[in-house]
């Protein structure tokens, strides 16, 4: 009788371990990528997003990093059909060096191109484009 119980307990343990392993791999597959975009100083009182062209899929996080001497924000000024960014259309001003603003590419983002600017530095060319699309195979 103890032999059957021992085998059953071992089976339950193996099944639980297998379930946890599969759950962990599913979670990591859904987590997405981290995409870094620096907000930087350029010569002649210019500013830029680096890189200025970003490609992301749903589940990715775009992290804007303050690496400049001036305050910056991120403002998506044109949205593709079906996009519903709400408050995320205009991000906060980031002032201190090293501070970040994370934007999760979730269901608010329809596939398409999202031009963005820094409001106070749009006139000196601080602009970029986020392209959201399905994962490439």
Descriptive report:
This protein is α/β, with parallel strands linked by helices. It has two domains: 31 residues; 101 residues, Immunoglobulin-like, CATH 2.60.40.420. Helix content is 21%, strand content 32%. The chain is built from one helix and eight strands, in the order H-E-E-E-E-E-E-E-E. A four-stranded mixed beta sheet has the order 2-1-4-6, with no helix packed on it. The longest helix is centred in the first third of the chain and has 29 residues. The chain is globular, with a radius of gyration of 22 Å. The N and C termini lie far apart (52 Å). The relative contact order is 0.20. About 14% of the residues have low confidence.
Which labels suit this protein?
Immunoglobulin-like, 8 strands, 4-stranded mixed beta sheet, 137 residues, alpha/beta, 1 helix, single chain, 32% strand
Helix content: 10-25%
> Which CATH class of the largest domain is shown?
Mainly Beta
Instruction: Tell me the count of domains.
Output: 2
Tell me the β content: 25-35%
* CATH fold title of the largest domain: Immunoglobulin-like
Tell me about the largest β-sheet. 4 strands, mixed
Report how far apart the termini are.
52 Å
Uncertain runs with pLDDT below 50, 5 residues or more?
11-29
> How many alpha or pi helices?
1
Tally of DSSP β-strands: 8
């Amino acid at each position: 009788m103890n032999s059957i119980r021992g085998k059953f307990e071992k089976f339950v343990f193996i099944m639980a371990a297998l379930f946890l392993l599969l759950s962990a791999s599913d979670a990591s597959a859904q987590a997405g990528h981290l995409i870094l975009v620096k907000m930087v100083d350029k010569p002649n009182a210019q500013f830029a997003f680096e890189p200025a062209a970003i490609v992301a899929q749903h589940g990715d996080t775009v992290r804007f990093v303050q690496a400049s001497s001036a305050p910056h924000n991120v403002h998506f000024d044109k949205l593709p059909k079906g996009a519903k960014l709400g408050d995320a259309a205009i991000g906060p001003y980031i002032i201190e060096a090293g501070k970040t603003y994370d934007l999760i590419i979730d269901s608010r983002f329809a596939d398409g191109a999202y031009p963005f600017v820094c409001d106070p530095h749009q006139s000196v060319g601080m602009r970029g484009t986020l392209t959201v699309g399905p994962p490439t195979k």
